[in-house]
Amino acid sequence: MEKLSKIGRYEFLAEPFHCDFSNHLFMGHLGNHLLNAADFHSNDRGYGMNYLNTVNKTWVLSRLAIEVMDMPKAYDKFFVETWVDSALRSFTSRNFKIVGESGHVYGYGKSVWAMIDLDTRHPADILAVRGGLITEYIETEYPCPIEKSSRVKLLVGATPIRSIDTYYNDVDINGHINSVKYIEHVLDLWDVAWYKQHCIKRFEIAYVAESHQGDRLHFYREGRDSDTDFNVRITKSNRDSAEVEVCRCRVQFV
Amino acid sequence: MEKLSKIGRYEFLAEPFHCDFSNHLFMGHLGNHLLNAADFHSNDRGYGMNYLNTVNKTWVLSRLAIEVMDMPKAYDKFFVETWVDSALRSFTSRNFKIVGESGHVYGYGKSVWAMIDLDTRHPADILAVRGGLITEYIETEYPCPIEKSSRVKLLVGATPIRSIDTYYNDVDINGHINSVKYIEHVLDLWDVAWYKQHCIKRFEIAYVAESHQGDRLHFYREGRDSDTDFNVRITKSNRDSAEVEVCRCRVQFV
Fold it and tell me: Could you say which residues form the signal peptide (chains A, B) (predicted)?
């Protein structure tokens, strides 16, 4: 395999049917494009899902933070640049930059990934894959000037503001609820009237446990210091189990 | 504008996170790609949304039928070919062919579109736009060997098998529930266990009325002659109105 640059750059289009009422790309679809870019970048360099599946391992997204100044509009072409800025035994950290054709910066992203063994579901040693191949692609100089994910404090004693069922279209190749679907479900907690007055500035999500089709998801929301800054906690329940935490999020609007 | 060919051809990728548990593209995402292709094709030729919006008109999807032999798998590149095969004053009919890189035919689609005036919401005369420009691009020879949409008989007296609320992410640029979201909600009526035994052969949808965020959607399902052939009817209700029909669908599995 020819040695590629550390930073990958992938072109996307803000598809008209992926845009909200204001003609701007939905945050969930932007999240999907970041995950695609991560997937393309790691596959191109030999440590992506395509290789990992042959050795019975996979990447698991642990945290994702996206911070935007504005969002691409319908038909805008844009690029997602992505690079790994650290790789440890248990976790790697991957950054994103979202740029327009003329160099306009829409925003940035930061993510944390673990690797697991597909049989045991236990963490795998990232540095043991292909003799630590990933460490040949660490890029620490290219700026990603947003804060890391914060620790979202656990909400206790609240009542869920919404509970929903999960269906066929929520489930990904691994049989789990798709990471992007959580983003959409969380952002659906605010209605169109709210989005007419507010834009998302920053979205953070920490994935705590997996959920499966048929699980019922419960959403808890709590305001933080300002009235445009929220914590959201998602739990799951099903016939066989009590409520278990699935995700914690923070959503900041302007 | 340079005169383009009658048939447009657009490349898409079956993105990994747009695939179901079996690693095949979700039908909803395929539907979205067909709508994208229709949009690109009509914009490129001067009678698309981009032009229509400047004269206060828009296209409205009235019917869509998709029939597939199989579905693209994750990372497959494929092409959607699309062409208009008839244009009348009130309706145009547009066909689709879904082909792989090596020429493999995944399936076909047929659709019917109306044009409306954005102020009155009344039908507009398609042939009056740009002096009947669309009629210069009618292609009637290229085969699309699937049946037209059938008339789905109205279901009466049934109880809905599911009712769901609609949220921010369901709403498109026109402020209506996105056409593709109905496809997803309908296909969610069957669970993963069903899809492990059955593939979608044909999906038909007729859009009867628009719905808006906050409307509650009700799904009625009725078996047809075989146990893999179903009619689905969607209605909406909200605080101010009784139940009104929104869509009628037919889903055939194999």
Answer: none
